[in-house]
Amino acid sequence: MPEISGFFGVTIYMNWREHTPLHFHATYGEHEALITLDGKVHAGALPSR
Q1: In this structure, which of 8, 20, 27, 43 has its CB flanked by the most CB atoms within 10 Å?
Q2: pTM (2 decimals)?
């Protein structure tokens, strides 16, 4: 999956041919979340700080 951005230890990945809903993946250490384009967490979780 191509890396879109990285900042403060958070890395954003997006694959345009993936399943619905439209989303991106965010990773922070061993945590990962699938976040829809309207900003809601669809699966997984990231620490609050």
Answers
A1: 27
A2: 0.79
Q: How far is CA 16 from CA 12, 19, 22, 33, 46, in A?
A: 13, 9, 8, 17, 22
**Cβ contact 30:22 at 8 Å:** no
Number of H helices, E strands in the chain: 0, 5
Q: Could you tell me the CA-to-CA distances from 28 to 19, 20, 44 in Å, in that order? A: 22, 23, 12
Tokens encoding 26: 């965010």
Could you read off the pLDDT of 1-49 as tens digits, one per residue?
788 999 999 999 988 787 888 899 999 999 999 999 999 999 999 998 7
